[in-house]
UniProtKB/TrEMBL annotation:
One of its GO terms (molecular function) is precorrin-3B synthase activity. This is Precorrin-3B synthase. It comes from the Bacteria. Residues 17-81 form the Nitrite/Sulfite reductase ferredoxin-like domain. The keyword 4Fe-4S applies.
Length: 497
């Protein structure tokens, strides 16, 4: 087993990362899913070797927490013995229904594999940082628009043909579009962008590319049209080997910044994926029924805040097995997709999931809250994040049309970018941060045990102050940080009187 990875790197099965509650590993099955039997066996292994907490991240990765150096090695051996092949190298991700969604514009899997091969042939795997990623989105019911990436390719229709929109540095709403080209050119532009990033070092991302480099990438189609066939690797488009100067005349790209804003717009790629992170974008939540071929459906069930005890995952997988489920896929958005069961089994499976505490409705207020493990699960936590989140979700569902971040400490693992409101644990109790990250100075404090009461006071002010038809998020913006913080503090003052 390799040495532990630093915080911020990807905690792969062979390189666990040290967190506040021990070591953490993350894995992505190569096949895209697991049989119910394999998921049960994996959860049992997590119970034996970890602290019993399993997570599905916002990008659809499976995480096992609370490991030690010895138990992480045992877990890795058991995963290998189960025959679960996990992805390694530069992440090239496709949607959870890739290849089986009847509404898909194109199957993204062949393109993803071509990019993986080209990246490997170019020797880029060891030169790129662990957070660099590529998304290949075929469209369909569960798009990848909400997930950020350094390079993203999305299938789009053009007249009677299908082309690929290539963009960089962002999610489906804010990434900078470079070109809409055929499959060969799309692959080449993607690999060229990764080569440029690699030449800047392992800390670099596509957001660090210069305007001239972006123009070079955008003009690549003009260059390749002069050749008989585009190469899979572009050695001549780089800071050190000359760039295409004027091929994109009139084309201007400013350097994008990747960070989240109120309204769930942007989130930095891959960072803080420890649990329950809320991603930006407008794609449909992977919760509920999604039609497949014929009369079959896949059922999406989410983990609250991206986390669930392993014994409850075992119970759900056992129910799915009994009802005829063949495969369980991990889905971006902290969810599991159940496939293969007869249509009549979906409602009983959904009922079982609800009884176990899983999220079975896309309107569940828990989908609007990002909460890390907190106390007592994480030694770094200062507040009981999940208890606070549960109380707020139960009492204030009517105003949760914005992202609420509840962080056990200032590291902000669950949601690294700014959120509309953040409750963060610290030495002075539970601080309230407005429109910033968990690292920002809170505008007000109250005891950690009373944080949910403070939020309820803020919710009451929103209800009384918002105009007809105004969203809670818009009302928060209008009230401003000072007014919101005062409401949060007032609850504590009134309690003392």
């Amino acid at each position: 087993m390799n040495a532990f990875t630093r915080r911020g790197a990807c905690p792969a099965l062979s390189a666990p990362m040290l967190t506040g509650d021990g070591l953490l590993v993350r894995l992505n099955p190569v096949a895209g899913g697991l049989s119910p039997e394999l998921l049960i066996a994996l959860a049992e292994s997590a119970l034996r070797h970890g602290n019993g907490i399993m997570e599905v991240t916002a990008r659809g990765s499976l995480q096992i927490r609370g490991l030690t150096a010895d138990s992480a090695a045992l877990l890795a051996a058991e995963v290998d013995a189960l025959g679960i092949a996990v992805r390694t190298g530069v992440p090239v991700e496709t949607g959870p229904l890739a290849g089986i969604d009847p509404q898909e514009i194109a199957d993204p899997r062949p393109m993803a594999e071509r990019i993986r091969v080209a990246v490997d042939e170019a020797g880029l795997t060891q030169r790129l940082g662990p957070k660099v990623s590529v998304i290949v989105d075929g469209g369909g019911q569960l798009s990848m628009d909400a997930v950020t990436a350094d390079v993203r390719l999305k299938a789009v229709r053009a007249d009677n043909d299908i082309v690929w929109s290539v963009s960089i540095a962002g999610d489906g709403r804010n990434a900078k579009v470079l070109a809409k080209v055929d499959a060969n050119a799309a692959r080449d532009i993607a690999v060229a962008a990764l080569r440029m990033v690699a030449e800047k070092g392992r800390e670099a991302h596509t957001r660090d590319l210069s305007d001239r480099q972006l123009v070079s990438l955008a003009g690549w189609l003009c260059l390749t049209s002069l050749r008989e066939a585009p190469p899979s690797v572009l050695p001549d488009i780089s800071p050190s080997r000359g760039e295409i100067g004027s091929s994109g005349a009139g084309f201007s790209l400013t350097r994008p910044e990747i960070g989240e804003t109120i309204g769930d717009s942007v989130i930095s790629p891959l960072e803080g994926e420890m649990s329950g992170r809320t991603e930006g974008g407008a794609s449909r939540k992977p919760i509920g029924l999604f039609p497949l071929a014929g009369d079959t459906f896949t059922l999406g069930i989410a983990l609250p805040y991206g986390s669930m005890p392993a014994d409850k995952i075992i119970a759900l997988a056992q129910s799915a097995l009994a009802l005829g489920t063949i495969e369980i896929r991990l889905a971006p958005g902290r969810a599991l997709l159940f496939l293969g069961q007869p249509p009549a089994a979906n409602q009983p499976l959904q009922d079982t999931a609800a009884a176990l505490g899983f999220v079975t409705s896309p309107t569940d207020p828990r989908t609007r809250i990002a909460a890390c493990a907190g106390t007592p699960a994480c030694a770094s936590g200062r507040i009981a994040t999940r208890d606070i989140a549960g109380t707020i979700a139960a009492e204030n569902a009517d105003i949760l049309d914005f992202t609420l971040h509840i962080s056990g400490c200032a590291k902000g693992c669950a949601h690294p970018g700014p959120a509309a409101l953040t409750i963060v644990g610290g030495e002075n109790g539970a601080g309230l941060v407005v429109n910033a990250t968990a690292k920002a100075l809170p505008a007000g404090y109250r005891p950690g045990y009373d944080a949910a009461r403070g939020f309820s006071r803020v919710a009451a002010v929103i209800r009384s102050a918002r105009y007809p038809g105004e969203t809670a998020a818009a009302c928060l913006t209008r009230l401003g940080p000072a007014g919101i913080a005062e409401a949060y503090r007032q609850a504590q003052t009134k309690k003392r009187k």
